[in-house]
Automatic annotation (TrEMBL):
A single MF term (Gene Ontology): ATP hydrolysis activity
NCBIfam families with a match to the protein in the record: chap_CCT_eta (TIGR02345), thermosome_alpha (NF041082), thermosome_beta (NF041083)
Subunit: Heterooligomeric complex that forms two stacked rings.
PROSITE patterns, per database record: TCP1_1, TCP1_2, TCP1_3
Record's protein name: T-complex protein 1 subunit eta
Amino acid sequence: MTLSSSGYRSYYSLQASSPKTTLSPQRNLLSSPPMASMLQPQIILLKEGTDTAQGKGQLISNINACTAVADAVRTTLGPRGMDKLVHDEKGNTTISNDGATIMNLLDIVHPGAKILADIARSQDSEVGDGTTTVVLLAAEFLKEAKPFVEDGVHPHNLIRSYRTASTMALKKIEELAVSIEGKSLEEKKQLLSKCAATTLSSKLIGGEKEFFASMVVDAVIAIGNDDRLNLIGIKKVPGGTMRDSFLVKGVAFKKTFSYAGFEQQPKKFLSPKILLLNIELELKSEKENAEIRLSDPLQYQSIVDAEWNIIYDKLDKCVKSGAKIVLSRLAIGDLATQYFADRDVFCAGRVAEEDLKRVAAATGAAVQTTVNNIIDEVLGSCEVFEERQVGNERFNIFSGCPSGQTATIVLRGGADQFIEEAERSLHDAIMIVRRALKNSTVVPGGGAIDMEISKYLRQHARTIAGKSQLFINAYAKALEVIPRQLCDNAGFDATDVLNKLRQKHASGEGPNYGVDINTGGIADSFANFVWEPAVVKINAINAATEAACLILSVDETVKNPKSESAQGEAAASAMAGRGGPAMRGRGGRGMRRR
């Protein structure tokens, strides 16, 4: 055994001759590492280059990322919201203030913040409007939870309180909602127009909201109880003003490619019969898989005549069916066009499948795959068909259709981006009117419902003993983000307006009072016809609470990016795989080895 002669600490040392280990009397037991930890191997669980982050810091990082995403769409909320211009990698430019559109175009890479993009998308597909609202609410719930997380509160305590508050908020909305069931059609139309106008007021076409709101309501009522949104067609024609847009209670589509003879066809019919086809009406010589052997050259003419007879037979059957309008999914050639023109029949080939389906739904026609045995039952009809000039385009318009199960909005406007945004705005309004028709309950907008729920939750929080009181209070405060942001976007003093709203709601005088965008004060949103379907607010609060709870429940993020070296090796092996055999082959053929 050896002893340490200096003042440094001594470790175990072994005599070569002695099998036993003895301790040095000078050894400092506290400062030396134990033998077990010195010999324990390092445990490697994840690949090299894997990035892991966990604990409180990771949770706060996720909250900050979600707040940053919400800041991107914050200024688009409400009638005075600003628009965003998004320029993507392909060079396409999109101008929009629709939350879901912006979130889709942002191409978010942060895994936590992507959840906000997902809830915006779900809100858009479920109810059509309130996409900015749902993102703002989720981010605000997280922002209010952040101080508690920093102070060491367990996230599950927050989640439990948030879910309780959410359930109470949804019950309160159902209490405050006003039903439009049992009204006459005219009254219902007016109420639905108000809902559509509220949605359109925050869009680029907000200046003409009454004009478009009545158009949207007429279109939705035209398709009746059918859920298929594609029965409402929106056609875009650049040029003119927004006021030049019009609604066709039927089908309208752009004139398709036409051959010579088209000009001679009639362009207007009253109560015509309509034949829809999915076959080509062209003179085609049999080229594929056909071989004909002739012993006499004179027989060749009979083959040519047979081809002409086939096409003439098809055209003759179309005309004998009594149809005055023939539409086909496939091409109608120049011979057929001229043939129909001589017999006062209108034809159009290469009609888009979507338009053909809508014509079938509106006129009651059935699409045929053969011209044999065409009976009256498969023909459609409408009151008026005409081809009309709209801007620089020619449009085929079917109006007065018997089933009335479709409608078309023809949009006019200056720039292409403007018309694109108008189409997105009308989509939101159409969704809202459909939802209002089905659920038939509305709530006051302008932040009124949010303030009333906030007051209700604050009062309830006072009855709770324990930390939950603070968390429900935080949830109630987060709901005030909607009226606050409406004021900020309109340039009003948010603090002043919110104080007035709190006083009005606390006194019990005005549960319907919200922000008055025109005066900068407060006003009765119901009296001012600022309404929105209850389902929009219910869905927004549900989705925002779920998203906030989901992000709060995540305490670790594991990111496993492919290492650059691995990618480099894969590329090198691919190159070797392509180059190797070629080099070997060349050497083998050209030179003998020595």
